[in-house]
Structure formats: C-alpha cells, structure tokens
Structures
1.
Amino acid sequence: MEDVGYSGQYLDNKEFRIKVRTGANIQNATGDAICGEMFLVTGANPAFYVATSTSSDSTQGIYHVMDLIEQVLPASDIKDIQLGIGSVHVLTHGGDVWSAGDNSWGQLGDDTGSYSSTFVKALISDVDQISILDQTIFYLKDDGTLWGSGRNTQSQIQFGLSATQVLKPTYTLVSGVSKVSAGSTHVIYIKTSDGKLYGKGGNGNYQLGGTGSSFPDSLIYDGVVSHIHASNIGSFFVDIAGNLSGIGWPNTGNVFSNGTPITAYQGYASLYSNIASSVSKVASTTFNTLILKTNGQLWGCGENNWGELGLNNQTQQAAPAFISSDVSDVFASNSSTFFITTNGELKGMGQNYKQELGGTVYPILTPKLIDSSVSRGTTQNGSIIYQKNNNVLYAGGHNSAGQLGLGSFADPIDPKQLLTLPFL
C-alpha cells in the first residue's frame, strides 16, 4: 500500500499513530499494522478501515470504520438528549438514563453527588421522558408516575421532603402524567385524565400563577393543551387550537407584558394574531422567546444583546420579529439560539462565548451554518449536543463540569464527536 499521511495523537495517555494508506486491498498491511492506523481501499468498493491494535498483539484486528460507528451509535438506542446547567442526560429507548457533568445537587441520579466527565447510569428504569433546565431533572416513567433528582430547594421534586439535595430519583407524588417540562425551580406537566396543565414547585416569578411562593400539585390552565415549555421565570403552553399562552414574570421585552407580572395566563394570539396562533413549539430563556409555527416560520422577541435573535442587529425586540422560514426545530439558552431547518441544517447565532457556535468569532448576528444532516439538538449555558442523521453525536461549547461527556473538562473550539458511550 502507499503511505499517504501521518499524525501523532494520544488515547488514554498512550501514544498511537494514525497513517492513511491507499491500495486495492488491505492484505499486505496486516503484517506491520500499528494501533490506530487507517487504510483506504480504493478498489471496486472503496472504504476506510482501522487497526485496533499493533501487529505484535495476537488479538489484532482490522475493522471497517462505518461498522464500528454503527456499533457505537445504533439509531434505535437514543430517544432523547437534554442539557442542564453543567450536565447532560441521555434517554435510551430501553428506558435507561445516562448522565455526565455536574452532580452537586444529585442531578446525575446515581446517588453519589460526585462530578463525572464520563457517563453514569441513573438509578431508575422504564423512563419514557426526561426534562431538565437547571439543576433538577424529572423522569416520567412508562406508568405515568413522575420522579425527580437534583435540586429541591423549592420543593419542586416533593413537598414535605426535607432534603434540598436529592441524590437519586425520587417519586414526586404525582401520577397520571403524559408530558413534562422542567423550569429552574418549578415543573409543569399535562395529566392524562383531562389533558389540562398542572405544575408544582417555586412560584417566585408567578410561573405557576397566583401569588404564593410555592405550590404542590396545582391546576394552572383549565383547558386541554398540546405543547408545554417551562423557562426560568415562566410557563408557556399551546392549546389544542394551536394558540400560545404564557404566565410568569416579564423580562426585557419577551412576550410577557412589560413591567407587569402575569399571575393568570395571558393568551398571546389576541396580541399577535398572525404569530401566536398555529404554534407547534416555543423555546424560552430568561430573556427571550422563540416561537415556531406549524408552517415552519420562526419568530423571536426579547433581549438581543448578542444577536441571539439572528436579526443582524443587537436591538431588543419588544414584539416578535421574523427570523427564518423552513424551520423544523428550535432550542435556545440565554445567549445563543439554534434551529434546525427542514433539510437538516443546524444553524445558530448569538454570543459564542464558549465556542458553542463553532470557531472563535463572536458575536454571531445572523444564522451561521454549523453542520448538516442534523436530526436533533439541545443547548444550555454555552453547551450544545446534537445528533446527526447517521446517529453520530457531536458536543461543543462549555465543558467545565465535564457536561459534554467527552471524558475531559476542556472546552472544544469546534463540536467534537462523542465515541465512548457505555449505553450504546
């Protein structure tokens, strides 16, 4: 074979070399293969191969690279991925939850309270949905019971539970739930029995309605809802007619009325009839709100100091402004916004202070193409993880707590592929 390239790298503190050689077959390479060496076969069926050990090792093997990727990341295993502040959580189709990163409140659910830069399994099974925004994760089990671990300072996990740090999944005393969305100190959910919106936990920003400081399991909206989203300071929901409503504290021109806390839900379709109707999803941070309509249009309002609304300016938007069309999904954190187009392009805009948008240029005032063939993603506090159509996971941005699951605490300049995942 022809030797066409070389680079030196390290894996688990052991040096290995990568060579790329071309040829019509790989047979003459097996005698002197080096661990990590790659081979490009250029015959009728071109493909990359990799040696997983040195030629002196009796267990040496040469494997087709795509076969290895498919073994590591099969499509059927990942059901959902969510980022909290300093932690990442992956739900498998088998109902297990694997997490990495900050565990100071017990949000990894492994009963240790110890940080982990690699994935650990939460002590719960048969999970259908997960939701985390800050440092409390909620697990919705197949039987409709709602569980939680992590921060319990506002009794958002369980009223009457004296512990503020819940190290393993604990029953919230709420059952019959079909959908869940976690806020910073509260949680909202839809009950199967009537399809209505309920919530519990902290109410310091009126995000559960009324004027009390915190509530147990309480009705928020006496009507059937289809989509819910809890933010740091509010709660949003879409009714079955597709109309968007919200409740909570106003902040820097988001869709809440400026200066007046909304203690009973506000229907936004009456204020912005062409925008807040036919809504499929809403993503909200402390300072802005993104509205995705069923026709694929994305609108946004609120703080725009870092260009996170993608309008090519840094001007606060008091009313929703049009951002893009042909959008299939949107997710956002306080300083950056990401969306996926209908053809699978991942785009983002905003501060980029932890290189979550890729590269070192900041701020990004218009949507920047980050990757293509993307199926889903999640972001929080300068971190991003997304999955491509070939089921490969990439992670980038803020990683000081090891929340990207890369096995280190360094911030990558560009998104890096996640390979060593014990749950796949």
Note: The longest helix spans residues 65-72.
2.
Amino acid sequence: MRRLPILLVAALILTAAVVLRVTGATRSASATPDAAAPPAPVVPYAEASLKAFRTRAGAPVAGLEGGAGSRDSLVLLFAHALDRSDTPALRALALNAREFAWLYYPASPQSRPPYELDADLMWEQIQARSMRGITRALRQYGGGQLGYRGYECSGQPERNGVVTLHNACRIVHTVDGRTVTEPLFGSIIEHGGHFKLVGFSNRL
C-alpha cells in the first residue's frame, strides 16, 4: 500500500482542525445570544405620533372648551353664526387642536389597529375638509341666506371611550321657497355634557 506524503497528511489534519473550530464557534454563538444588546422596545406608531402632537398642541384638557350645553343649542348657534357670516363664532364651535389631542384622537377607532392613522395626518385631514366646507357654506348661505328651520340626525350616537359622536346630521332650511335638508357640518362630539362640532365638512 502506497503511503501519503508527509506534507499532504499534515495539510489534511490542519484543515480538519480549522473546520472543527469554526463549527464549534458557530454553535456556541447560536446557543448563547448576546445578552449585552437586548432588542429595543417596540413603540406603536400611533402612540409616538400622538405624543409628538400633544407636545405641540399644549397642556391637557379635561373637557371641551366652549361649544354648547346641548346638541340642539350647538346646531342653533351654528345656524345663527352661518347666517351672520360670523367666522370667529363658527370657529369657536369647532374642535381645537388640544381637544383633538387629548379627547378625540385617543378615542377614535382610526388611531388603533389596523388603521393607526398618524395624529398629524388625521388632524390635517379634518382641518382641510373643514376649511373647504365652511368656505362653501359661507359663500352659499352666509349673509342671511340660510333660512334655518331645524335639523335632524339619522345616525345612532357612537360611543368611543370617553366621547360620543353624533353622525349624519343635516340642516333643514329653505332655499327659494323650497325646504332643503343637507349636511353643512361633520360629526358632533359630546363629552361631559358639552357639545362641539368636529369640523365643517360637507358636500356643497
């Protein structure tokens, strides 16, 4: 039987030792994770966005600021302010940034999975729709043109945490002698016996 050259045998032994050492190190690393570098805690995106929004919005609120003591009174105040084209009075009836941050957003289903809508984005959407809506309403019905007769809300009150939303509300008024029923604002928010408009979104 032919014998392998001494140099070849030595090379084979060295290669085997290297393979065993690498395999052992890999198994050791797999069995013992690095205890000095634990994974960072996962912060829900919506929670982080709300924290940043609250920092900019200001101090917490315990309830709605201003508004009205009943839904009927709120809608009547809205109708009178619109009829007079009283923009400051209309603005005082609507949700502000602090109320959104501390009352509306935490209770909104859109702030929770599977939506987790960013607080800034939700507020910007409300504000943009509200601005478009009130501009159109003032142009069409401001200056004594509303002819207010009453209102109706066909939707059931929707309880979300500490707030209740009254949806699908429509103003009943007269236009050229005809009775018209149409939405001129968005949802009504109720908290602690006070009522405000979420915004002035409408389909005008």
Note: The radius of gyration is 32 Å.
3.
Amino acid sequence: MVAPAQELVAPSTVAPPSRPYQTSQQLNQLLQQGRKLVDAGYFSDAIALYQQAATLEPKNPRIFAGIGYLEARQRNFPAAAVAYRQAVALAPKDAHFQYALGYSLANLGDNAGAAAAYLRAVQLNHKDINAYLGLGVVMFRQGKYNDALMACQRVVAITPNNARAYELRGMIFGQQGHFKEAIAALSRARDLYRRQGYMQGVQRAEVVLQQLHQ
C-alpha cells in the first residue's frame, strides 16, 4: 500500500548542529499545515507545502513519498513518478516506495519501468501481494505470459482466495488460447467476487466468460 501522506512524520525537533532551530520549527509547521490540508481534501495546496518542506529537508524520503501519494490521488502520474523516484533514490530498500513507483509508472504505460520497480518491491517484501499483482498486469501487457502467471501463482500461494489473481490468470489463459483453463479461473474469480460482495468484479468476470463461451 502506498504510504499515506497523513503518516508523514516530522523530523526530530532536536535539530543537528548545522541546521538552525528556526528551520526545524518551520519544517514542522509546514508538515502540520500540510496534514491539515490533506485531511480537508485540499491536495494541491498540501503538495505546495510539502514541496516547501522538501527544500528544508531534501534528504527525507517520506516527504517525497507524501508528494507522490497526493499526486497519484489526483491521477497526476507523471508528477507522482518523479516524486517517488526521489523517495526511492533516498530509500532504495523501502518496498512501499518501490511499489508506489511501479504503480505510477504502470499508470503511465511504462510497463518495463513498472515491472522493474515491482520486482524490487517483491524482492524487498516477499509477501507484497499488490506488487505481485501489479507485476502480473504489466507482464501481461508486455506479452510475457509465463512471467505473469508466475506472479499470479505467487499471489494465490500467499492468499488462496484472491479474486484478482484468478481474474488475471483467466485473462492470461484466454489470451494464450487456453479457453478451458480461462473459464475455470474466471469462474473462480466471479464466485470469489460474489462472496466478497464486489459486484463490479462479478460483472467484469461475467463479461469475459460470456465472450469465451461464444
């Protein structure tokens, strides 16, 4: 999950010797004001404050991740990707930041870049279901069906009743012409979605099933 901007934590109020107390106090004020704006739904105004905060604390990856989160919430994925790249550069071993970068790049259609970020995410966190699903999607888009299936299998191994994994598996099998396997996977996805009360997923699965039965 992308780290919410609300979870941004202000740096210690004890400033290092090279930073004046006034700067630290100003940073805390910017972060507090930014959180209030986020809570009120004023994302653009919050981003402006976090960008000011980033100039005061340019090595704080959580500030850049907060900017990326808010940009992604507004579907401004180019700006989100830039912010998450800065966060990843500062904290390359943070699986959440890697996933968020992959998500932003996937929404920009940069499937190869997204796959690389998702792969780093799952290497850092072997149980990151969302990263495996994202990896499966971008591999599917690139026609790398075996890799996409492997990602789905990993999700099912962690969460056996994951409807999205079965739905994606069905789409992959259908694209490969393995219609019997596709129908079985999509039927499973539909039933799981129905059990979860997620009717949009049920409808998606049924549309594809109808196409496969024709």
Note: The CA atoms of residues 1 and 130 lie 7 Å apart.
4.
Amino acid sequence: MPAVLIFTTLTMVVTLAYLDRFHLFSPEAWARLVTWSWLAIYLGVPVMLGFLLVGQLREPGTDPPRIAPIPIGLRWLSAGQACIMLVVGVALLLNPAFASWLWPWKLTALTGRAVGAWLVGFGVGAAHATVEGDFDRIRIGLVTYVSLGALQLLALARYPSALQWVRPVSWIYVGSAFWDWGRSDSYFQRGHDPAYRLCSMWT
C-alpha cells in the first residue's frame, strides 16, 4: 500500500502541475472521458489510500511470521534495484530536462515527471519487499512485477525503434524488464508451495 499511495500522490501532483496539457474541454467526447477519468482516479485514490493506511496502522495485532525467507543475495539485488529506481525517479521529478539522458527514449517535461513518479513508486515497493524479506509477505507485489515485466516486453516488441539502442541505458532497461518478469514468473510456477521452492532455488 505505501508504494501505491506514493505513486498515485506523485502522479496527482504532476497532473495538477501540467493540468493545462490535459484535454479537459476537448470537442472529442472520448478525450474528455479519458481525461476526467484520469483526474478522478489520481485525485481520489491517494485520499482513499491515505484513509485505508491510517486505518490499517490503527488495527491491533502483529505481522504474520516469516515462513519463506528471501535469500540474502536476492535481497541485495532487490535493494540495488530499489536504489536505482529511486535515484532516477527523483532526478526525473526534480529536473526532467537534465535527467532525461537516464531514460532510453525521449521524454518531455510532463512524461519525464510521470515516469519519475512511476519509478519512485516501484522503488518504494522494491525497498519494502527487501525489508519484508519474505516471499509469502510480498506475494501480491509479485503479481505486479509479472505484469510490469510482461507489459514492458510487449511494448518493446511493438515499438523497438523508440529506444536508442546505441546507449547502454537502453540495454539496462531491457535487462530490467526481463528481470522483473523472470524472477516473479518463476515464483508462480513452482508447484504447490512456490515460496519455499523458489527460496531453495536461490540458496
């Protein structure tokens, strides 16, 4: 929940900062529908999640025990990914014109900051998973990683010319997409008790 709350809140701030770029009063009905739906989501979801998070923190009880610990090597890799996402995300949010060289395709100020919000959200999620250190506790987050990796690879297959392939950052991006998809997909294909099986595979 913290990662989604941060991502949607940052996206809300970026949206409001560039509100004049959105088709609020477009003559096209479909454009207006998409624009106002976007506003409803990114203005409403952060508030809703804020209330839910406060309610969750006030609930009595303790966290369940760790039953499928993530191997230390994998936790270090996850921590490294979190650091990279957070650094690049914050850089894009603060100065997208300068930091756009960190991204494998051309970004405008609006899309640069939107990507920055996305990266910070996923960076917080990766850091949270590293701290939790248990496959069972991050089960839902792994669903997101499977989807993220698969959608990135699908987009790359559809628009390969969008990337500047001569730049190392493009290959880092592709490798990260395969990593996001591969590590999580393997988790869901480990039989009756995937958490323990994946854990044993990495140890």
Note: The chain has two domains: 1-61, 67-203.
